[in-house]
Every structure is written in C-alpha cells, then in structure tokens.
Design goal:
4 copies of one chain form a homotetramer. By secondary structure, chain A is of the alpha/beta class. The radius of gyration of chain A is 23 Å and the shape is globular. In chain A, strand 9, helix 10 and strand 10 form a beta-alpha-beta unit.
Chain lengths: ~375, ~375, ~375, ~375
C-alpha cells in the first residue's frame, strides 16, 4: 500500500496548522512566518484536498479593504495553481485582546456586537472562497470566576448570536451549514459548552436547528478524558456531524494538537473505523500542528504523517471487517436480534410475562478479551 | 444561623446513600446492613424531607410477590411514621451480573428485554410510593473495547428503551418525568452519554422529549474535570433540570461521592448560588456516602453535614447578592445592555456600519480579580 | 513469529489477577471462585513462568495454622506439577475492615502493630514459597480528609514499618528485596506516596536503603496522567527497579488494570523498548484482570494476550533499533557528544568564554515528526 | 483582622508574575510592559517582602554588559527605595527558541553547554542581588516523542548539569541552596521529573545532595491531580523544602497559575495549616498571575488577594488547632501511642504473639465525617 492521499479522501488542513510558528505559553516562535500562499503550495505539493481558515489567518485584522482584496485575489490564485479548495471557513473570536472576556457571551455589549460584525465579515470571506461549512469555536466563551455572570445568561447570548448568523447566511444566500466546536477549558478557566454533547443539546433550542451541527475535535473531547468516538457517533446518529477536527491528545492536560494518531493510535483506529463504517463524507480536517522542534521540512513530514496514518488505519478497519474470527465473535452475540421494540399495550403484557433465567444469561462469556486482542493484533499489523 | 433543614428545602437522600456499607474495589464492607426502615428513621430524625430508591434497595431482586408487598407495606409505614416522602424512584440496571455488558444497550437482546421489564417493575414500585420523578442512570451502558458494537447502534437502543418507558408511564397514568443521569466512565471503561450535555442532545430525538429531562450529578461531571454548574445552567435554561444529585468529587479519579461541599466548597457555592438564583424548586438530592472510616453515628453526621453545608452556602449566596461592592463591579460592566439582538436586514446594515475602537474596549480592566477575591472572602466568612 | 512465552521471558501473574471475580463498586461478582491450585494450572498451561500472591490470596485471614499448612502444601504441589515459580510475595493491608484508616500509617496504634505482624506472616509465607522480592503496596495509606493527621507523621510511620520489616528479613535470613508500589488515589481519596518518585525519595531516608526499591505499575502512574516509562527509567537509572507491574489504563479515572497494551499500545511500546534496551532482567508481572464480560475461558485469552502483546512489542523494539532511517535521524543529532561535563575551574572558564550562535542552533530542524511517524509505522506494522 | 502583610510573612512574587502581560496560546498580550522597577514599586506599595526573577525578566538575553550593569543598578535602587529583597533567583531555560528540545537534557550538546553557561550567568546575577536560593525549573526538559532519546540518559544529563552548578556555587562562594521544581507536562508533551517526588528521588544521587532541595508548586502537582500538601509534607520531613510556589489550579488541565486559594480554598487551607504547623520559615512565593481580564489595577488586587487569602487561612489554621471539638476527636484516636517501634528480636517475638481482635478494632467509628464537617465550618467562617 502506498498510503498516498487523493482528493476523494477529503483531507484538509487549516492555514493555522501548517503555518503554526510554534509559540507557546513559555516560549517564543521557532519558525518564521509562512505566508498563506506558501502554505497552500505546501498543501498542494503533499496531496491535500482542502485548506480552511480563520478570517485573520488570511486577512490581518487591521487590513484596509483594498489590502484585503489584494490578499484574497492572490490566495485564490494560489488555490487554483495548486488545486486546493476551501471547504470550511471560521472566525477568530479569541486572538485580539478585545475578546479577553469572550465574544458572543462577553459582558460588554460592544464586544458582543463587534463579535457578530466580525463573524459576518468572516462569512463573507468564506463565501467568496467557496466555503459551505462555517465553524464556530467560542475560544473564550467562558470564565475564570463564575461570579462574573450567570451561566444561563451566557447560553442565551450564545443562542442570540447563532440565530443572527443563521439569518445572515439565509439573507445572503451563502448556503452555510454551521458546525459548533466544543472545548472544556483553555484558554479560559472553563469554557461554556464544554463538550460536543452540550452543543447537541443547544442546537434544538435554536431558531434554525436544521442549519447547525457540530465540529467535534479529538483533542478537545480527549482533554476531558472522554471517549471521542462516542461523541462523534452520537452526533452522526443525530445527523449533526457537519465537520470533524482530527489530531491527537493525551487526556487531562493542555491542548496538544498532535499529529493524527500520535498519542493513541488505538483510539484513532476506532474513530477512523467509525467514520468509514458509516460512510461519513465530509472533510477529514487535520487541526494539528508540528512539534516545536521542527523547521518547515518537519512541518511537511508532520502533515504527510497525518494523512498516512489515516489511510493506514482505514486499511486496518477494512481488515477488521473482513476478519472471520472477529466477525465470528460478533455474530455469535446475536446482537442484531430485537430488544423490547416499540411499545404497545400487548407488547408490554408479553414482556411483563416473559421469564428470564438471570444466572444462565449472566454466566455466558462474551469473548471480548479475545475480540480486543484480535483487534490489537490487526492494529499492530501482526494479523 | 441554625442551618436546620426544613421540608421546604426539599433535601432528599437515596436509600443507598445512608445505607451504604462501605465496600470498595479493594475492601470488604465496614458497616452492617441498615434496613430501609431504619434508614427512613435516620432520615426523619435528622430532618430530611425525602428518600429515593432503586427497586432493589428496597425489594431484593429475588423477592416473591408477597415478600415484596410486605416490604413495601412496612416501608410505607416507616415513611408515614417519620414524615418522609419518596420524590424519586430509579432502577438498578448494574448490580446484577446479567448487566455485565450493559442493560438497554447490551448486545444480548434478552438482556435488553429484561432491562426494560425490570424498569417497568421499578416504575410500578415508585408510583406506588408516590414518586413523580424517575431517574435513569445507565450504569453499565458502555464499553471496555469499542470493537464490540457500533456506538451509534447503542444510541438507537437507548432511544428505543426510553421511548418504551415513556409510553408505559403514559399508559399507566403514572405521570412520571424521566431524568437521565450521565457519567463518563466507571464501572465501564467508557460510558455512552458521558456528560449531561450528551443527554440534552439525545432528548430532542426522543418520541416524548417533553417527558424527559436530566439529573446532573456533581461527581459525574467533575470526574471529567468539567464545570458542573455550567452543565446545570444549560439544563435549567432548556427547561430540563428535572432533578439534581449533590455530592462532591475531585476531578480525574474514581467516583468519590463525598459529602456535599467536602472536596471543593467554592464550586459548591457557585452551584448553590445558581440553584437559588433561578429558583430551582425540585429536590436537592444528596447522592453521597460516608467515608469508610465511619460507623452509623458517623453516617448521621455525614448526612447532617450535607444539609448544613447547603444551607450555609445558601446564606452566602444571599450575602453575595446583597454585597454593594460586588454588585458595583457587576453593574459597572453594563452587561445588561443589548448585544446584536434579533436579526433583520436593517439591523444587520446598522451593525456592519458600526465602528468599534478595539484598543480602547480591550484596555478596560474588568475588575474580575477583585470580584473573585470578594467572593472568596464571603465564602470564607470574613466579609 | 509465534509470540509464544518462554520461562526466559519471566512472565508472571498475581493469583488475584486470573482469579479476579469481576466485582466492582456497582456490581456483584460475575465469575465463580477459582482456587489457587486451578489458577496455577491455568498459568502453567498458557506458558507463564511465575505466580505472585498476597498472603490472603492463598491463605484465608481466619485460617488456622493447620489449615494454612495444608493449603501451602497443596499449592507447592501445584507449583511443581505445572512448573510455575513464586518470584514475589506481598501482603494484603487493605481488604479487611481493620485497615479502613490505613495500615502502617493508621491512627490507631493497634492497627499499625497488627499490620506489621501480618506483614511478617506474609514474609514467612513468601519465603517458604521461594519468593525473593517482597512488594509493599500501601493500599489504604492515605486520607479523605487531611484533618485527621499530619502528613509528615504518616511518612515517619511508614518509615518505621519498613525499617522494621527490613530488619526482620535480615534476622530471618530471607534475603528479600522490598519493592514499594505507589498509587495516587483509590480506594482512598488521596494516597501518601502518590508516585514512584515519592518512593524513590523516601528510600534514601530508610535504615536499609540498599534493600529497598520500587515496583512501578502502569495503571497507577497513568491514573495521574504521568508518563510511566519516564518513572521506570528514573528508577532503573537509580538501580531501584526491583519489580514492575504491567497492565494498561486510561488517564484520569479509576484503576482499570486492563490487559497489557489494551488502552494505549504506543505507551506500551516505549515501555517494552526501554526495558529491553536496558536489559531489565526482573519479572514482567502482569497485574491486570479480565473484563467483567468474560468467563474463565475469556480470562485465559486475557492472560495470553498480555504476554503476546509484550512479545509483539519486543519484536518491534528490535525493529526500531535496526531501522536505518530512524537511526540516521538519531545519530544526526550528535547527542552522544559531551555537554558541560565535569566541573573544574578551568572548564568553567572555558565554558564562560564559549560563544554560541543562538539563532543558528535554534533554527535547526530536529526531524522528530518524521522520527515519530516512522516509529508509528513500525508500531502499526506497515514498516 | 486586617490581614495586612508584614515582612515577617516572607511574601514574595516573581517579576514575571505581576508583570505578566496576559499572552496565552490563543491570544495576544492584554497589558503593556511593566518595567522591573515599576513592578518592584507595586510590590513595595502592597506590602510584599520579596521579589524573585529569572535572569531575562530583568536583563534581556541580548543585553550588552554595560546595558546589564545599568539595568541591575537601577533595579537595586528600586529594591532599596521600596524595601523589597531578592530571596530567590532563577534562570529561563525555556523562552528562547534554542531551548526547543530542552536545555540540560537537549540532544544537541551545544545547547546543553549553553544552558549551563546561561545558568552560571543567572547565578552571578542572583548573587549580586542577594539571593540565597536558586530555583531550577527545567521547563522544556521533556519530550513529545520518546523515540528521540533514552529517558535514563536524560536523568544522567540532568545530574551532570546540577553537579556542575553546585560546584560553581561552591567555587564562587555564593552560598546557594538549589530548589528543583517539578512539573508533569506543558509546554512539553511530558516533562522528565514530573513530580516533586521524582526530584526527591534524584537528589540523593547527586554529588552534593546537601545543597539541593525542592521547590514544589501548587499548580504543577495539582495538574496531575495529586495532593500537593502531601508532597510538601514529604519534602519538609526530608529537610528538603527549600522554597515553595503558591498559586492555584484545577486538576487535569493547562497550567493556570491562579491567585492563591482561587480554585480550591480547602486545599489551600490544608497547605497553609501544614506550613504554619511545622514552622516553615522560607519564603511564601506567589507564582501566579492575574486573569487576562485585568489591567494593572486588577493585577494589584490580584497580588493583594494572594497575601490576604494566605493570612485568612493562617488565622483559620490557628482556630482549627484551638477548637476543642476538633482536638477532642483527634485525641480520642490515641494516634500518638507507639506502633511497632524499633525492631529487635524480642520486640518481634512480642509482636508475633500479640492477639488482635480484628472485628472490634474495625468496628470503631473514627468520627472523620464530623471532623471534616467541623473543618469545613471553620473554613467557611461559621464556626
């Protein structure tokens, strides 16, 4: 197997990922600026399909209208030259100091208004570049002290902003689907809408729930030690998996954004298997960045590695599905047989009368250790 | 202040809390059996309002019908004698070995059917005792290896069971409101529906979403290091806070179920403040248990401590709301002024044209350190 | 490759691992009792080299002297029949309710005395069975409330007990080496000596530091989200790696004791690589247990899986060491060249005068992304 | 109580704490530069006793010798003017890109040499300012991929550097005591010497163990969910508590460095109580920074809050010690009576013969729930 990416794989990277300069809370940047045009070239060279961007990844926050237009024109040229598309756009509501208390949920109403204005601009930009997915990550929608506002008020403010933006997309005919991205903490002490589940709970309360889904990120769910694939599965089952951010992370620590599969390849395997099994057909977006030890040659290897590991795991998922011993264990369980089914008065009467031999049912060994060991051996390539 | 509980406080305890015998994964029970009747007596003596129960807390899983009726009769007598009510009932879908692979989501269809049957019985029991809230905690709805089933299939099975149970309540005229309780892991490697948010996301996909809300638990959300109060606030704002489990927990470890406020009184303060500020009027249920170092006299002190700490923090919440310096900081923020508001074409045009002086807005100090220190000093009782 | 274990691999299991009955805080046992003799038979059948035990895994706490002798005799017979040795013994200072406040550090002096007496008995038993390593895991040496004792007093009590036990071993001529096992929490709220590092710090303060080392356990260090291999490396470098407990665990949760390599095979790989690279020649002890979904046939597969995965990873470690691309990256770093070396006045003068071109040194890419991707591909068996 | 700090409290702050500009991984600085001289003025104004510094907090890394001397002269003037001392100095081995792979443990020998040279310069600077404690925090001594070096090699390199620096201090007659500061992760994926315990284990293997102790930090130990006070107690008991970094942190997340007591006042209470009970007489150093929401007026309130909370908790510790009910529970335990004591052949014979009534001893309730509730009520100021 060559593990070469193709456009059908829909592999995308954020401008901010390959152009990440390696600054962290304790150290200065280690890499020079990589221009958006050069980033697109790099992505084209390595076979990526798409590039995503925050407004200010491309256009500086202080750019004039004409500067903006020049930048956008050059960028489009690069996209065409390198056969890279822009499937998704987003907005930075966290970098500028004005957002120090959040954006849509900030206590200062001017900040809330500015955040919406800025997002509209980012939507304009994304639409101009062809994006049909708009991600909203409320990077600073949170608190260090909950004395500062009532937490239900924050939910209301968030809803107000999202409802506005949906209307704006409709009014402009942009055709956006919004994908909400959760994160439990960092850079704020705690972030509202900590998990993908919280957003799945918010969406039905919006004015246009049909336009809004989620953008789960491996690192964000894993920071809280949660099983990321389970969250993805719930989102998919609800028809809300609009986008996905792939990277890697060890639980219980800062947002690491490692190369896909670099922290725990087993978790990555179950994720890829799920996405492939259900036929997820959205972008596979790598929201990761290279170690600070790397120069841009290393960044390139980092990006290639993300895609290779996905393809390697995809092949293993197919192997799992074709493995007779594994399928034997799974089919033996009879799990496809019906449970209680749909309620009716008579079905209930039948069920109440049913006798269960608890001890016998309980005593049955389920063979999950063998199942998991076989899975491990497929993962490790010895089967 | 006396910090004496009254029925208006709606303090309740599970039978399984005060009767907890102190068994853990590494040690044998340290306390003898406390009968349900004696537990009710203890709760009445210390001024608790309610007692909750799993079916098998009261009626052994192997009891005959007549044994059951005798037990229930004696228990009702005790409730009357000690002026204790049963606001909530629930079902054990985790203790018996039959549930080793889960209950509603188990691979064995017989187990799924049995789980529904058993829950119907627990609903009958709860209704007989006057309960109007039925909690569902899927203690073992999860996995150690995700090779064993597709995670979206588990969501479907869960929905099927809850839909059935809603219909059963309607058919029987029980008037139940169901409260779904999330937990991220333990006793399973990972549990589906890991956070309160996940359940808020599931509910709108049910056949009877209006009958179903959540039962957030301090320890369960805190195990994943999440801000519990934020989850409670989202649930409340969505009209879904049907019940609440109060206890305490340090993040990132086993389910500790400590006395309310015992691990982090600051978090407990913000929680009590939220519940009181929004006028939450459901039960304050303590789902905790005493340290293993205690005899039943210690258990009593444990239960009294839960209620005292709640009342102490409630008083502090009132003090916070009445503190002129604190309210001065909060009102100075002007956060009650409108943000972008409701979208209209003209409102959007106005907003697009609005000028924001980013630097000036950003430079404003928000006084949150002082706000938080004042809060701390109220909490510590020196203000 | 067959991945068949041989005695030279020194694979051992605790009696309590394969005989684990699957009880957990929320559920009853799922497997019947497996006798020590049958456990030894199972271990012999699957090719394990050794079996370890707590005193009460073999001899019930209430056994009479003659019952004990009969049990020991039968057990020795089984050891001989199945060619299984006892490399390590330990003591249960946590199961019986008497240890609810700890053992060596308990506040009740009678408990402290009993704990030492019981440990002496366990040492006698281990010596009789041929064990030369004695593990001390202070399962309950901790607190739920730090109000109960001064934490430095606990350190003193711990030292007193260990010093006594070293003397007892010397006096009896048992030739034991003690291996201290750390754990951060569970079943106590917090456990003193939370990490392997804490024990490495305690040992030099003992009366017989030369007799005492550590027994790091994957799950225990990983519960706190720490890099287990780093702790093992420090212990080894200090000559203190007397024993090791292999299993697997996801960070930030209850003690899972999963099959070796089942949670994160990448971490397991770096661990096996370290042990093999440094020529660790002690037991490879699997302190794990099968999922609760299993019968004893599943337990057997679980135990076989532990050993297979170790051997698979050992083969991969050799492949890593032989990989020319990997070794090329590593040798390019020049890391074997000397740093500052040993201090002398003249060496210091030389160093102070040395000029460093910070920018050039910093700009060099270290190729760690490629290095890690190559490692990943070896791990996944595609290289 | 006024809770006003006095020099006897030995409250110190790092230059980097009050001058922290609020940059984080996702956002730009929110505060302008605060010069070292102005920082000293602020600290003097609010009653702090000391100021600590990394070399480059005061002297830019590219400063010429004459620039350096001018800066130092002005700084000394400010120290004198505002009656602030420099008890501790340290070195930045993490900010400059040259340290991207670590400093003392970096693979590039030039980096290792430069790190030692730079530390010698920082020691010169600290000595000139009167510091007698030198803290070493190996901010980047770690890995993202353990493929890059053997972890025991890192320990050896670390030892080599510390041994050199001890010799340098001796040769120069600086009289330094070195305090080693652990951290589990961030900014590196994993940091060697993850906990205070790891350093306590390293120290006895150094050439000059008597010169080297530890500098535990609340946030660093708490990130891993460990009980910080326990680590402090072990260090103190070993005579190795040379310095301490006070701040606050929620477990399992990025390094928050919150105002002392702001995350969990209960943990802060037990810490202050321990320090005061044992008569710790070193600096109480606040290694924290203000929220990003603050201007420099907010920073001032932040710093005042750190000191006030310490003094409030100190008062509560005295109240705990004077509380008759609490002391009654503690003395009832009889924990001051001897355990097994010192081993002798006859003492062992006596102990072996001793009879213990396990059930009776185990049945005794220890009253820890009441003890903890009383402690809570002291903490909350209602007792």
């Amino acid at each position: 197997m060559s593990y070469q990416p193709s456009p059908a794989d829909k592999f995308s990277f954020g401008l901010w990922t390959v152009a990440n300069r390696g600054r962290d809370p304790f150290g200065e940047p280690v890499r020079d600026v990589l221009s958006p045009v050069d980033a697109v070239k790099m992505l084209g060279d390595i076979g990526a399909w798409g590039v995503n961007l925050h407004d200010n990844d491309l256009v500086p926050i202080d750019a004039t209208a004409s500067e903006r237009d020049k930048i956008v024109k050059d960028f489009k040229q690069a996209l065409g030259d390198h056969k890279v598309v822009v499937p998704m756009a987003t907005v930075s509501l966290f970098t500028d100091p004005i957002f120090k208390d959040g954006a849509f949920t900030a206590n200062d109403p001017k900040v809330r208004r500015y955040a919406v204005q800025k997002t509209m601009g980012a939507m304009d930009l994304g639409a101009e570049l062809g994006a049909k997915i708009f991600v909203l990550w409320g990077g600073r929608e949170g608190t260090e002290t909950d004395a500062c506002r009532r937490a239900d008020e924050a939910v209301k403010r968030l809803r107000e902003a999202i409802d506005w933006l949906c209307e704006y997309s409709l009014e402009k005919g942009y055709g956006y689907r919004f994908a909400l991205e959760a994160k439990p903490n960092e850079p704020r002490g705690d972030i509202y809408m900590a998990t993908t589940g919280n957003y799945l709970g918010l969406i039905p309360t919006l004015a246009h729930p049909e336009m809004v889904g989620v953008n789960p990120e491996v690192a964000h769910e894993t920071m809280a030690g949660l099983n990321f694939m389970h969250a993805v599965a719930q989102a998919h089952e609800a028809g809300k998996l609009f986008h996905i951010d792939l990277n890697d992370q060890n639980p219980g620590r800062y947002d690491q954004d490692f190369r896909f599969g670099a922290a725990n390849p087993r978790n990555a395997f179950f994720l890829v298997k799920f996405l492939e099994d259900v036929g997820y057909d959205g972008p596979r977006h790598f929201d990761a960045h290279a170690y600070r030890s790397e120069d841009y040659d290393g960044v390139k290897h980092f990006a290639i590695g993300c895609m290779r590991t996905y393809l390697i795991l995809k092949e293993k998922a197919a192997r799992f599905n074709a493995d007779a011993d594994i399928q034997g264990i799974l089919s033996k369980l009879g799990s496809d047989k019906p449970g209680a089914g749909k309620f009716s008065k008579s079905a209930a009467q039948t069920l109440v009368a049913e006798q269960f031999d608890r001890k016998t049912i309980a005593a049955r060994g389920l063979d999950y250790e063998r199942l998991d060991q076989l899975t491990t051996e497929i993962l490790l390539g010895v089967r």
